[in-house]
Amino acid sequence: MSAEIATRKELDAEKAISSFIPYTRHVTDTILGTAAGDLLTVFKLSGRSHLSADYETLMNWVRDLNTVFKGAASDHLALWTHMVRRRVTEYPQAHYDNTFCAQFDMKYRAMFTGKSLMVNELYLTVIHRAMPDKTLALLAKFEKQSTREKVERQQSAVKDLEELQRLFFSSLKRYGPEVLSTYKCVHALTDVTADDGTVHQEEQRIELADWWERERPRFPRKPDDGRSELEFAEAAAAADNLPVYLYSRPAEFLARLVNGEQLPMPVTFAHFRETMPQNRINFSSWGELGEIRTPTRTRFFGMVEVFDYEKRTEPGHLNTFLKAPYECVLTQSFSLLSRHAARGQLERHRQHLVDSNDPSSDQVNQLTVALDQLMAGEFAFGEHHATLTVFGDTPAETRDLMEKARSAFFDVAIVPQVVGLALEAAYWAQLPCNWKYRPRPAPISSQNFLSFSSLHNYMAGKPAGNPWGPAVTMFKTDAGTPLYFNFHATDLDEDNEGDRPAGHTIVTGMTGQGKTVLLGILLAQAGKFRPSVVVFDKDRGMQGTVMAMGGKYFPLAMGQATGMNPLQLDPRPENIIFLKALIKQLAESSGDPVNHNDEVEISRAIDTVMFRLDKPLRRLSLLLQNLPNPMPDPNDPNPRPTVHARLLKWAEGGEYGWLFDNETDDIDLTRYRLYGFDYTDFLDVPIIRTPMMMYLMHRTDAMLNGQPFIKVMDEFWKPLEDAIFVKWSKDGLKTIRKENGLLVFATQEPGDALESPIARTIIQQCATQIFLPNPMASRADYVEGFKLTDAEFDLVKSLPQDSRKFVIKQGRCCAVGTINLVGFGDELLVLSCSPDRAEIIEAVIADVGDDPDRWVPAFVSRVKTKEKPQ
Predict the structure, then answer these.
(1) How far apart are CA 89 and CA 140, in angstroms?
(2) Whether 508 contacts 746, CB under 8 Å
(3) Is the distance from CB of 654 to CB of 648 less than 8 angstroms?
(4) Which UniProt keywords apply (predicted)?
(5) Where are the domains of the chain?
(6) 311: number of Cβ within 10 Å
(7) Is the dihedral of CA 728, 733, 737, 740 positive or negative?
(8) pTM of the model
(9) With b meaning 16 or more CB within 10 Å and e meaning fewer, what string describes 546-579?
């Protein structure tokens, strides 16, 4: 009995979690109130990619933000920032109609379903303090206010906070701000994709906007309907007997700080302080560790606080925690002081040093300078606290992670302290507006605060809302965060599906660093969009990829019939214009220019062949029969060769007759979606390369039809270095973009590529740049040629060979990604082909047929048998 009484007394003495939570309800859709009358609004930020910035640039970012802070400075303003680092298993959903692509995607997806992937979520909470002065706050408790006065005071505070909201939103544009707000949901049947790729329907909570996007065609709307889109959507949901519920995103973020996990937060009649606690939070009697009990699991946490640091801080001072190998929450608060209060604090601190006979005159001088800067308005001043909460599955693991966190602080010249008896207070101080629980708040300048809380993050890409829909694929960054790859570079906060911005991409990498494999992965993963694909290949490296994806591959070889016959093109105007340019190029290949009379002869001959002869009869040999071939003047010592004579070497029996003078044109680009052409033999033979590329580019560009289109060109600078492609490099890329296409250019020789004026023009039009390891990288090539910053060049230069890492750059953002294909031995045999493996593919296809479902397994088996050590 006495034990029961003791337990009951203990329970009665335990404070409810709600007593530590200050939040009441929404004042507006984006503003929450507290019991003390404070108001807050929460921004979620994608963060600014810092890897590509040098030190001076990072300092400029701090100065720019400091200018914003100075403009908004008031003792009514306070800020809380949070960096939430958590594990995710996100991966873009996709459907493939090709077995190789589907199986690769399923296997690749499994790499991201464990505990290896982390995301960094950044939040900025802007607070309007009702009573920043403690004395006035105390006196206000004894002052009786009418309801009208309270309403007017709150309306004035809301107006002030909304102005701050607009100021921060516009000033933080480069940091990807989103103001968290209320949102509406319905419960409806939704397609769900299982791990095995099957799709079934489940009733799920789905945002009203997403439901409406799916169901809009079912509800025609009259032109004169004055309701907003969401109002009409809500009425449509009601017509479907689907109740609509209101939820709060800012409350969900705050509830995550309370519960240690993400939970939905409906807006109800009760205060949020009552509805937010969903898990049991326990604190040990002696501090050090805490425990979070959910209905399904138990987790532990510990906290480390910033105790002291050098007065000199650097931009991104705490960026080390953006790549911490554990889940954590970095919390910082900054409560601005009035200039009068800040001056008083600095003067008292300076006087304390003088009175205590502190030998450090430097500190006194620094405080004197700080006072001058404060009064000159060079920075704002406030009280700051910083804690890091780390999470583990066991007490031992949590202690180990706390020690790692402590070491990370020491590494950046910060003296940390493990939070012990004050753990409970420090935990609740993570919640914005919990002033009284903050451990050890210390005076700090706005510049110091912005160095500690720089709002940096790693480039994450865009998972959805891209021009072709979902991300092409996903890589893992050096920081363990997901990198959603897209050829197109678009704003993260815009839905660009269906748009046609630039998506041209360039890939550089030394031999053996994974360039061919990377290109193969990008094509295989892009298979979800069902694009038309053309690959101009070298050394048959991508033959396996093209054919495994169900495509047709042409291994063109010097001296062997190519199956090309340009004169069997349909006699459409654009083809006639092209043929005249092609024949002119062939005629000029000997060095003799084509004059006006020559052009007339060529034009007449082509018109005759194309419009008067049946298609099976049209070929270069017959064109010669329609070109005049008069006898040369015996008295002319340097007779000018006729067009007929100059074209003889291109006709059957001539030196190059095998290129175009074939009985039929076997380049059928209507049967498959993917085509590959190996042009290795011709890259260094301009006399053949130029006309051949003219024909292949003309044919493949004609495949554009508004559907996704990808053209890959390995060692692109060689086939395009001819003057005839100057116009194409300027206008052709724009045309391809407008037709929903993109080009992927690849080279292992960036220096040689940059020597080509055409290549430079192409590089300038590339939205995405990918750089694989190159320890021999030249600053001139990468900084002056590819326009990398010094920091980006250093990243490329520092990538270890064979690391399977790469630097990806889009606009001002860059990241270091990894191609981790451990366990993909079979797939690599296909993705990284070679001439000898290409011959095995052809031999296997001769045995089992060209169905990839049959020949790919047989090919893998045969290669393994052949390459197995004896």
Answers:
(1) 50
(2) yes
(3) yes
(4) ATP-binding, Nucleotide-binding, Plasmid, Virulence
(5) 2-90+117-180+281-457, 182-221+229-242, 461-559+666-820, 565-665, 834-870
(6) 13
(7) positive
(8) 0.89
(9) bbbbbbbbbbbeeeeebebbbbbbebeeebbebb
- Name the CA radius of gyration of the chain, rounded: 34
Query: Shortest CA distance to 44 belongs to which of 78, 76, 84?
Result: 84
Contact 711, 532 (CB under 8 A): no
The helix-helix angle for 229-239 and 208-215 (nearest 10°) equals 80
Using DSSP, state whether 712 is helix, strand or coil.
strand
Angle between helices 852-867 and 835-848 (to 10 degrees): 130
pLDDT tens readout for residues 76-115: 999 999 999 999 887 878 899 999 999 999 999 988 876 6
- What are the tokens at 340? 């009068």
pLDDT of 250 above 50: yes
Per CATH, the number for 461-559+666-820 is: 3.40.50.300
- DSSP per residue over 161-179, as a string? HHHHHHHHHHHTGGG-EEE
Asked if 119 and 460 touch (Cβ cutoff 8 Å), the reply is: yes
φ, ψ dihedrals at 357, nearest 5°: 55, 35
Q: What is d(CA 22, CA 702) in angstroms, rounded to the nearest whole number?
A: 65
**683/562 Cα distance (integer angstroms):** 15
Confidence class for position 381, pLDDT limits 50, 70, 90: confident
User: Are the beta carbons of 332 and 442 closer than 8 angstroms?
Assistant: no
pLDDT at 319: 97
Helix, coil or strand: residue 203? strand
Band of pLDDT at residue 371, cut at 50, 70 and 90: low
Task: Name 26's Cβ contacts closer than 8 Å, sequence gap at least 6.
Answer: 32, 33, 182, 248, 251, 267
How many whole angstroms separate alpha carbon 624 and alpha carbon 614? 16
Closest CA to 692 of 672, 677, 704: 677
